[in-house]
Amino acid sequence: MANILSFFFIFFSLCLQGSSTTTFTFQNKCASTVWPGTIAGAGTSQLSTTGFELQSGSSMSLTAPTEWHGGFWGRTFCANDTITGKFTCATGDCASGNISCDGAGGIPPASLIEIKLNGFQGTDFFDISLVDGFNLPVSITPTGVSSCVSSSCAFDINSICPEILKVKDGNGKVVACMSGCLKFNTDKMCCRGKYDSPQTCKPSSYAKMFKKACPQAYSYAYDDTTSTFTCTGANYVITFCP
Ligand SMILES: *[C@@H]1O[C@H](CO)[C@@H](O)[C@H](O)[C@H]1NC(C)=O
Ligand SMILES: *[C@@H]1O[C@H](CO)[C@@H](O)[C@H](O)[C@H]1NC(C)=O
C-alpha cells in the first residue's frame, strides 16, 4: 500500500512539474566560449542562474516557472581583469563585475531573445530583438510541439556592419554592430515622440539592413508583424551561432 501511494505521489508530482515549468536549453555552436546572461522581467523572479559560462560545443539547461518572462543574451570575449579581478566582457557585459548578472541586463549592442511564458490564453510569445543592435547569431527553437516554428538570426551581421555602427575590440576586430537607434538616439530612429506608433515609425536604412540579414528578428521597435512568434506547451532550445 505504501508503495502504491508513493508511486502515485511521484507520478502526480511529475505531472505537475511537467505542466508548470518550462525548460530552456542553451547550446553554444560558436567557435568560442559564450557567457549567456538571463534577466527576469518586472514582477517575476530571476532564474537559478543569471549568468554562466558555455564553452564551444557545450549545452546547459535551466527551468523557468509558469508565467516567467524575461530575456537571454550571449556575452563574448569575457575575462577577469588582471588588476581589479572584475569579470568583464567585450559585448553584452552586464557590469556586475561577476559572471552572474544579478538582475542587470546586457549593455547593448547584443542580440536579445525575449520570451513570455503562458501569456494570452496560455500562449508563449518569443522573439529575437536587434532593436539595440547585434553581437552574435542566435536562434530560439520550441521543442516537443510539432506545430511551432523557431525564430533564427543565423547571419553574422558584424561582417556587413556599416563603419559608423561598428563596435571594435582593442585589435580592431568587429565584435558587435549598433542599431541606428542606439547610435543616433533620435526619436525617428527609436520610434519615440511623434514617431511612437506603427503608422509614424518607419524602418531606417540601417533597420532595413538588419531586416535583410535577419528577416525573423526585430529590426526596429514596430517591426512586430514579422518578428513575433508563439507556441503553447513547449520547451525551448536557445542556440548561439545556429
Ligand atoms: C573568472 O574568475 C572566476 C572565479 O575565479 C572563474 O570561475 C572564471 O572561470 C574566470 N573567468 C574567466 C573568463 O577567466
Ligand atoms: C560576486 O559574487 C561573489 C560570490 O557570489 C560575491 O561575494 C561578490 O560580492 C560579487 N561581486 C560583485 C561585484 O557583485
General description of the model:
By secondary structure, this protein is an alpha+beta fold. It is 15% helix and 32% strand. It has helices at residues 2-20, 180-184, 187-190, 205-213, and strands spanning 21-28, 34-40, 59-65, 69-80, 87-91, 112-116, 124-129, 133-134, 138-143, 151-153, 166-168, 174-178, 229-231, 235-240. β11 and β12 form a beta hairpin. The longest helix is centred in the N-terminal third of the chain and has 19 residues, at 2-20. The protein is globular and about 45 Å long. Bound molecules: 2-acetamido-2-deoxy-beta-D-glucopyranose (2 copies). The site of one 2-acetamido-2-deoxy-beta-D-glucopyranose (NAG) has 4 residues, from β4. Keywords: Disulfide bond, Signal.
CATH class, named Mainly Beta
| Mean pLDDT level | 93
| CATH topology term | Thaumatin
Q: What is the end-to-end distance? A: 51 Å
Q: Determine Rg (CA atoms, Å).
A: 19 Å
- Number of strand elements: 14
Low-confidence parts: 7-18
What is the SS-derived class? alpha+beta
SSE topology string: HEEEEEEEEEEEEHHHEE
What is the CATH homology-level superfamily? Thaumatin
The hetero compounds bound to this protein are:
2-acetamido-2-deoxy-beta-D-glucopyranose
Number of domains: 1
Q: What's the tally of helices?
A: 4
> What is the helix fraction of residues, given as a range?
10-25%
**What is the level-2 CATH architecture name?**
Sandwich
How would you sum up the major sheet?
A: 6 strands, antiparallel
Shape: globular
Amount of beta strand: 25-35%
